[in-house]
What does this fold into?
Amino acid sequence: MQVQFLGNALSVNKEDNTVVIKTAEAEARVWVYSPTIIRISISKEHSADTSFAVIQKPSHNLTYTETGSEIVVNTGALKLHIDKAPLRFSFYTADDKALSQDDRRFGVNWQGTRVMNYRKLYPDEKFIGLGEKTGDLNRRGSSYYNWNSDVPEHTPKSDPLYETFPFFIGIHGGLTYGLFFDNTHKSYFDFGASTDDQMSSFGADAGDLNYYFFGAQTVPQLIEDYTWLTGRMEMPPLWSLGYQQCRWSYASAAEVLEVAEHLRKDNIPADVMYCDIDYMDHYKIFTWNKQTFPDPKGMIDKLKEMNFHLVTIVDPGIKIEPGYKQYDEGVAKNYFATYPNGEKFVGSVWPGRCHFPDFYRDDVRKWWGASFTALTEPGVEGFWNDMNEPSAWGQDIPWMVKFGNYYMPEVRNAYGMQMARATFEGTKKILGKRPFVLTRAAYAGTQRYSAVWTGDNSAYDAHMLLGVRMVNALGITGMPLVGVDIGGFMGDPTPELMVRWNSLGVYTPMFRNHAAKGTIYREPWRWGKQNEDIIRKDIEQRYKLLPYIYSGYYQAHQTGLPVARTLAIDYTQDTIIYHTKYQNQFLFGDAIMVAPVESTKLSEDVYLPHGDWYRLSTGEKFAGGDTIAAAAPLNDLPVFIKGSAIIPMQNLIQSTNEKGDGILLLNVWYGKEANSFTYYEDDGSSYDYQKGACYKRDISFDPAKKTIILSAVDGAFPSKFTRIKLVLHGFEGIKKVKVDSKSISPDDTFTNGSKEIKIAF
It folds into this structure.
């Protein structure tokens, strides 16, 4: 198959604030979206300009200069140099430092419909991102492709998996950039893996070479720009941040209630119970099994009395069965995917032979969303979207299957996202409050609708550590609410692995224990009293941290910055953090660093980046910029706190529905640098926060001025904490502090007023 190159520019014009460059082979278009975001789309035949991911419009401020040999677009923060012969694109900082550029020889080219962009590879260039991918934190030397697939029992080297997030960040020479390839066909990324380390490349089987280039010079700003472009999560329901107990399957209402009662009896904090596929009537979506779940509302009412919320699974396959409501409606209104001749596609999944809704149509999404009344009327508030790659028992759905105006190869990678969208929009409308939506398959922009998890992982240490990297990489690509199946979905964990994995769950954005049918049960009491005590202690720590965690989600809602963060976000230019020995370490929020440890090890070398650090469990202080040998018994995962950290906590509660004792524990660790933290509360359920019904205040620590200041409250929501207790760590010799000039002991509490509170130490 012959290679066709982009060729030379034949004409350059400005059309509706777009630079249009034509060659003999194709047409390139250039838009400016912001001073740090430039979009380029290259195509032989530009299709309709639609995107499932992007929610912003280009700026009207595009200017360029042109000479006989080049075009220069200057945004003030970013420069794009476009060579005319051959047509090549090179991005620079405002002060002319090279960020990324086409390979001079090959640039953009086609083989048939497949389009590829070959780019210069810098000697020290590192790559992070791409979401749910196996391999190392630094993607250099690896290649991947995106084709959302059901991959049970995948290995730490499997590719592709369930989700497509074609956004990555490049790092070289002290510089950073980002690139989002917005194309839903099967796509490819090669970071120097197959070109003798000469080039990187990305492309797709068909469609436009359509990408957004980000030129901000910090990773947090790149993430903020990317999530500005593709959207940010709404505030999640507070209960979804608690401990979640799941299994395929709790086979009856009695078993669901028994597990919930046992959690309460053993004083193990928890908020969520799940029903997997066996709650349904022969696996038909939007039905209940009348034998094993005869009274769904009664069951859910009992769960609510115990302060539990219920999440139920939903799959896209609609069973072919006349008389089944969703089947009859879907057939009558032509809501299902078809072959080109109009015949409905049939694939087999849990219910047997099924049709698949066309979630690319607005009317189908509304129909799907309205169908959730079968679940919401009894009281379900969480909705778990599974099998939506779409999966049809391993069948490769024929490429001629149509979804609206699209064929399968064009949009497979976005099917799960559109299902999650339909679920979110429908349940939000029905409930009138925040639903919890969880999806297995996803595409860029899914953060607007849903949480994700990493699919059918397995019960061994390498999978536990891989899960950490996947969660962190998903955070880079705009997904803050992310989880893994704690303990591993497939196989049987050892007690040691279960304990260790649960301790990591405390610092995983979504904390869900889940397991497959046929495996040993995973509930906390299944591992003996000593291990149950450790598991309980760690889950309790999660609940104590919820004020800090919820404030972290407000930050994610505002800026896109994830809750679980690879160290590459805050310590981008520190080469040690990319070493495979330390690549699993991550920050949880602004201030907590977690060092994952295999279940078979009782100590671990931990790298502490620059600054002061405190071991959370012991208070021992360490100087950063070095590696330490950290003890790692099963009851004490190595967790460290940054100097100058501000971490609001609460005393123990058993669920997020509990009001608690009304005392906010304001923890501050001494450090040499000034620091601030934005504390946030709202009702955790409604959308009133969008109308100002929230409680927000900035908390600052200044060691030079010896002050801790809580700003005046912003917002109209009354805090559930009426008192504040200051908890100081590493402050030598402090026996008294002054709160608004009143001297108190640090062990005393003081009133949580709405005006500024000044603490002097």
In short: The longest strand covers residues 27-34. The chain is about 20% helix and 30% strand. The radius of gyration is 26 Å.
